[in-house]
Amino acid sequence: MAVILLNCVTLGMYQPCNDQRCTTTRCQVLENFDHFIFAFFAIEMIIKIVAMGLYGKYTYLDDSWNRLDCFIVLAG
User: Fold this and answer.
1) Cα angle, residue 31 at apex, residues 25 and 34 outer, rounded to 5°
2) 24, 2, 42: which is closest to 13 by C-alpha?
3) What DSSP character marks residue 21?
4) Mind giving me the DSSP string for the chain?
5) Residue ranges making up the domain that contains 56
6) What digits encode the pLDDT tens for the residues 30-66?
7) What's the domain count of the chain?
8) Predicted model pTM
């Protein structure tokens, strides 16, 4: 939950019109947080796939919330 909240805060702080080149310290810090958040969610997904299995009954992709989570991580 804390990482989701951190993601919401960093998305709210991002200014796409002002940060086209990302040369400011604020933009670079937000970019580093974005990389950390992506890695965190990707690792979480991989751990759940290893623990539950990928495809079949009662596996990771059997749950529709996990399929949505997988789509969001892969799209990121």
Assistant:
1) 145
2) 24
3) S
4) -HHHHHHHHHHHH--TTT-SS--SHHHHHHHHHHHHHHHHHHHHHHHHHHHH-SSSTTSGGGSHHHHHHHHHHHH-
5) 2-75
6) 889 999 999 999 999 999 999 999 888 999 999 999 9
7) 1
8) 0.79
